[in-house]
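My hope is that you will study the protein record below before we discuss the fold together.
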Amino acid sequence: MNTLAEENYLKAIYHLSHQADNVSTNQIAAALNTKAASVTDMLKKLADKQLINYTPYQGVTLTTAGEKIALLIIRKHRLWEYFLVEKLNFKWDQVHDMAEELEHISSKELIDR
């Protein structure tokens, strides 16, 4: 299982990869509003888990496994937004931040409670 931070990094890399083949540490830092040194530490962890291809100073790409996780998180985010609007009657401009938190909940966590 991945941490909330790891999932956010994978999601950010996925979105940024639509702008360039290799995503730079600085691009990720800007997207996540963090320092490049913190990004480097996380990239090493994600590379150890084989979720990204990372070469220092050359950028990063998602592996197939990393892309699968990123797409799953994005899908869950969109489903939460839809649920909040359609079933709980929130407005579309109100749901993004809530969906951002809810997207990281796994079914296993709900069962274990």
The first helix runs from residue 4 to 16. The radius of gyration is 15 Å. The chain has a mean pLDDT of 92.
